[in-house]
Sequence to fold (154 residues):
Amino acid sequence: MNPGELLMKTVVEAWGQADLEPVRAALDENVVWKSASTCKDGVFRFGGVYRGKSNVLALLALLSANYFFQRYTMKEIISRGEIVWGLFDTDGAYIPTGGSDEDRKPIHFETAFRWRIRDGKILEAQSFFDTAALLVQQGNFRGAQPLATAQSRA
Fold:
């Protein structure tokens, strides 16, 4: 595994353990982070492009208001030059805004990350996730079931 691939594996797996220190250390001061969601209204309130380390850290705080990531399991990481792509199984829990622990719902979906890395720092990041599976598990999309959930895999 090359240094960029190892950085992604280390940062993302730590994030899944609620350890944000590796991502803080890896972000360039001028990082540009493109959220998986493209709008800030609706079900996902974290859409858009975040510029600068402090704004990316604010995004991560916003995500943690409703999403509790418990594990990112690496499926594949590949790189070419400064670009690193990773595919991870994501397990965690979702609590709706204004909800309590009784409203907590287990979630499982795939997440892909694309990073541009230079000198051990993340210059650009973009995330993608299985939106339909997440919406079903959150209860925001009725009439469909995800192929696999955290419960059915256990």
